Structures are given as structure tokens and as C-alpha cells.
UniProtKB/TrEMBL annotation:
GO molecular function: transferase activity
Keyword annotations from UniProtKB, A to Z: Transferase
Pfam families: CoA_transf_3 (PF02515)
Record protein name field: Acyl-CoA transferase
Transmembrane segments: none
């Protein structure tokens, strides 16, 4: 098999672009096109003719920001009170402190107590050299990124390693037949191409949840698993729609045993663990391939799968600081401080690319061929930084409020963007309303007991 390529972009409609030092709207359209193209190929596999595709660039831009607006209530803050950019002795550094243990790590390094405010943190950060503070916070199991230019990143060992990686790291193909894919039907159809496909979601924050949200909209049964203490209150309404969300303590024997049970029933695993994290749980890539030979395994991380930072914790905003995006924005807009992208585009684009790979891999698995795939935010950034800045004369995307769709969530009513991807003959819809993390049991719901009917050509 040759190297996989994502499809040519379908027709793009809509006007307006997000103002940025790079073509963020173009990235939104191309990554969504990849996911929509994978759905179209699966539709054909189910015996239908190739559907027509189009992407609304205005809606794509908005989906890269936020798709949900509450009505009559407010979303909790997305950012912790001390998260953000700080001036250090030789530049700027970003502290990511949304998770309590990441906040504690940063404050510990700075010698501050739990109640420290932004001003106090800023005073302490000013005394540090950026790379020294970055290294100290990371060594304390926290998350920080010193702002580098594109040139500095390309000269950095990690920047060089990531640039040498392919956008999608595909595993070697292998033959598989689990006695289920070919002998027990998934109730999928051309109209609902992922119906009956079980997706185990071990991701958090944005990129992975974007991938599984997209798959849920076309019928996949998505079960998201979070640790007992994890919280994302500002993102739950945005990213849990279409999914059931449960909690497991994978550090306990019972929690790990339950995860093994879920893996045995899953079709696709999407996880955001760093390269060594699953190994410590006894769930290495090799073990998964041996124990679950028909499981599609898609993984993503922040800084890439090779190089000295391959085990580094990271998030979109940190990668933007590390790789030169925030610095390029500062120069482009003439700002006196880091100027990141207007949306967390690395997360969203990587999410749609993950969905595309998972769907393509599932389609191949239906024919008895299995491959894994890996992505990273930093490698997606390489693609974005190959583009030019947005047109300064182009208008911003404008949203007609009349297109918003009413939606009920566990927290109250709201309005959701309509899909940006238009696939003829298909309606993207969620079977499960947005609900809080830990709101469901850790089990699969839909039984499989029908005999298979192979699609034409399958």
C-alpha cells in the first residue's frame, strides 16, 4: 500500500476569513474536508454512490472557535485565573494552569502559595530566564512554553524532529479478522455510515474530543473515559455532545480491569496519552496490537512522536508559543506581546485529521486490513506555517443568528452551529445531548447480534 493522502478539497462556500498571521480559515476548510472525504468514502463502501461534498468556510471558521452558545445561562470560564502569558527576563512565557496539578506545579516552582494571583505570579516570573523557567515547570510535571520565533524553533532539536515527521504517521498494514467485523453486522448504512461503530475516547481538552464529536454526528457510539478528578467545565457543553462520558481510575486494579473490558468491545480507540503513558499502564502499542488485533488505534500528542520533547505535556496554546506562531502574530500585528491565533486552530485541525484517519482505517478494517495512525499538534503547526497571512482586506466571517439550531443540554438550553460540512444524503446529528463528564456508566450500550450483509464491493 502506498502512502495515504487526504482528498482534494471539496467545494467551499461562504465568505470571510479569520484575521491571523497564517491562513487559519484555510486550515479549517482543509481539515474538515479531510474528515468529510473519509465519510464519503465510507458511504461508497456501504454501497452508495459518491456523495457531493461542500464546506462552508464561514461556519468552519466559527466551528474552530465555539459551536455552542448558552441561552439564559453562562458557561464557566475556560481559563484558570493565573493561566496566560507573562514577561520573563528575556522574553515571554506562557503558563498553562487549568488543571489543578499543573497550577500547583507552576506555583511550586515560583515559590508561591495556592492563593497567588496574576500580579504576584508576574512579579516572580520577571526574575526568570524563559528557558530556565520552562524547563523547571516541565520538570515539576507542569506545563509551560517559552515564546520562540519560527527560526529558533526550526533550529531547536524538537522543531527539527517534528518537521521530519509526516503529517500522519501510519503504522504498517496488517491483515485482521476478529470474527466480528465480517461475521456480525454493524447496522451502518449510507445515510448513517458509522452507526454501530464503537469508539473508545481516551482524550481530553479539544483535539481528540473534536475528532470523536465529528464521528458521533455520523452514528458512532462514542464512550469517553476521564479520570475521577478531571474537570473541563468550560468545554463540556462544547465537546460532549453526541457522547456518553464515564469515569475510571486507571491507577486502580478495578478501573484498569474495566478499561480492558471496554477495549475488548471497542472498534476504534482514540487516545491522547503521551508515548510513555500507556506503557506505564501496561497498554503499549505492541500489547494493544497483540491483544486486540482488530482495534483501530489512533493517537495524538502535543509535541510529536520523536525528538527530546516527545514525552512533554502540551496544549494548543503552548505549541503556538513554542513553534513561532505567537511570535509571528506579534510581528504581523505589530503587537507588544505574544499574539496567538484567534482560535485554537491546531487542536481543531488535528481533531478533524484524526477523525479522517480513524474513519479511513475503519473502512479498511471492514476489508480485513488494519493500520494505526498518529498525529501531533506540533506537526499540524508545520502545515499551517507553510501558509501566508490572511488577506488584510478580507472581511471577517459573519454569522447569521437565524442559522443557529436550538439544543437542550444538561445545563440548560442553547444554540448550536449547523454543520460546516455538507455531505449529500446525510444529516449530521447527535443521538446523545451534551452532558457532564462522568454522567454515564462505563459500558457499551448497543448490542451486536445481526448477521453480516457485506456491502457491494466490500
Amino acid at each position: 500500500m502506498g502512502e495515504k493522502q487526504f482528498p482534494q478539497e471539496p467545494a467551499s462556500t461562504g465568505n470571510g476569513v479569520l484575521a491571523a498571521a497564517f491562513d487559519v480559515t484555510g486550515l479549517a476548510v482543509s481539515s474538515m474536508s479531510a474528515a468529510a472525504g473519509a465519510i464519503a468514502r465510507l458511504v461508497q463502501h456501504h454501497g452508495s454512490t459518491a456523495p457531493d461534498l461542500s464546506i462552508d468556510s464561514q461556519l468552519a471558521s466559527f466551528w474552530f472557535g465555539a459551536s455552542f452558545k448558552p441561552v439564559g445561562w453562562e458557561l464557566p470560564p475556560v481559563w484558570d485565573s493565573i493561566a496566560g502569558d507573562y514577561r520573563c527576563a528575556d522574553g515571554w512565557i506562557r503558563l498553562h494552569t487549568n488543571a489543578p496539578h499543573h497550577r500547583a506545579a507552576a506555583l511550586s516552582v515560583l515559590g508561591l502559595g495556592a492563593g497567588a494571583d496574576r500580579a504576584t505570579v508576574g512579579t516572580e516570573v520577571e526574575h526568570w530566564m524563559g528557558e530556565d523557567l520552562e524547563a523547571a515547570v516541565v520538570a515539576a510535571a507542569g506545563c509551560a512554553a517559552f515564546m520562540r520565533s519560527q527560526e529558533q524553533w526550526l533550529a531547536h532539536p524538537q522543531g527539527q524532529s517534528v518537521a521530519a515527521e509526516p503529517l500522519v504517521i501510519w503504522g504498517a498494514p496488517r491483515l485482521t479478522d476478529d470474527g466480528g467485523t465480517r461475521q456480525h453486522a454493524r447496522p451502518a448504512s449510507a445515510a448513517r455510515p458509522l452507526e454501530g461503530v464503537r469508539v473508545l475516547d481516551l482524550t481530553r481538552v479539544i483535539a481528540g474530543p473534536v475528532a470523536t464529536r465529528f464521528m458521533a454526528m455520523y452514528g458512532a457510539e462514542v464512550l469517553r473515559i476521564d479520570p475521577p478528578e478531571w474537570a473541563e467545565p468550560g468545554l463540556e457543553a462544547e465537546l460532549t455532545v453526541g457522547k456518553r462520558c464515564a469515569r475510571l481510575d486507571l491507577k486502580s486494579a478495578d478501573g484498569l480491569a474495566k478499561l480492558h473490558e471496554l477495549l475488548a468491545g471497542a472498534d476504534i480507540l482514540i487516545h491522547g496519552y503521551r508515548p510513555d503513558a500507556l506503557d506505564r499502564l501496561g497498554l503499549s502499542e505492541g500489547w494493544l496490537a497483540e491483544r486486540h488485533p482488530s482495534l483501530v488505534n489512533v493517537a495524538l500528542d502535543a509535541y510529536g512522536w520523536s525528538g527530546p520533547w516527545k514525552r512533554r505535556r502540551g496544549f494548543d496554546s503552548l505549541v503556538q508559543m513554542s513553534c513561532g506562531i505567537a511570535h509571528a502574530g506579534m510581528l504581523h500585528f505589530g503587537s507588544d506581546r505574544p499574539h496567538p491565533l484567534p482560535v485554537q486552530a491546531l487542536d481543531h485541525a488535528t481533531g478533524y485529521l484524526c477523525a479522517a484517519a480513524a474513519i479511513d482505517a475503519w473502512r479498511e478494517r471492514l476489508d480485513g486490513i488494519l493500520r494505526s495512525a498518529k498525529f501531533s499538534l506540533a506537526r499540524t503547526a508545520v502545515e499551517l506555517m507553510r501558509t501566508g497571512p490572511s488577506d488584510p482586506l478580507a472581511p471577517p466571517p459573519l454569522l447569521d443568528p437565524a442559522v443557529l439550531l436550538p439544543e437542550e443540554t444538561a445545563w440548560g438550553p442553547g444554540l448550536r452551529l449547523p454543520p460546516a460540512c455538507r455531505i449529500s444524503g446525510l444529516v449530521a446529528s447527535a443521538d446523545v445531548p451534551a452532558r457532564g463528564l462522568g454522567s454515564s456508566e462505563a459500558r457499551w450500550l448497543k448490542p451486536r447480534n445481526a448477521r453480516v450483509v457485506r456491502a457491494e464491493g466490500g
